[in-house]
Write a structure and sequence with these properties.
The protein contains no helices and 13 strands.
Length: about 140
């Protein structure tokens, strides 16, 4: 996410296109392996996506955090993080390897279906500096 806009990586390269490319947006960036972002064209033909979504009448604040590799994102909901399974709508708790069975579904429309959000551990601690999330 850059300035509120989301981008999708192209074939594991340094090239990222606006997530609304299919809708005609020409914005794109280059993200180097060290994480540095070179702004190539950040002019969008649409407003940034809104990550506050509603489900069952409750507002939920969703954050998308780029992973260290820059190839995927973590989804943060209620201070817990989830990892996407094979670029699908299915997300599992980032602590799944430690036995946590929490999971959810996050649809492109922004809808969240809480399949099981009971965790067997406290949420991870993050700080945000200059728009970058750092796990403590």
């Amino acid at each position: 996410m850059l300035n509120g806009y989301t981008y999708s990586q192209i074939n594991y390269t340094v090239h990222w296109f606006c997530s609304s490319k299919m809708a005609g947006c020409l914005a794109r960036i280059r993200r180097l392996p060290d994480g540095k972002i070179l702004r190539v064209n950040t002019v969008h033909n649409h407003p940034p996506p809104n990550y506050v979504v509603c489900h069952d009448g409750k507002k939920e604040n969703v954050k998308m955090i780029p992973t260290r590799s820059g190839k995927k994102f973590l989804l943060m909901l209620d201070s817990f993080t989830y990892s996407q399974i094979n670029y699908s709508v299915r997300w599992v708790c980032s602590s799944k390897a430690q036995g946590c069975e929490a999971r959810l579904r996050y649809y492109p429309s922004g809808e969240i279906v809480r399949v099981n959000t009971q965790h067997n551990h406290p949420p991870p601690k993050y700080i945000c500096r200059n728009g970058v999330y750092i796990k403590l």
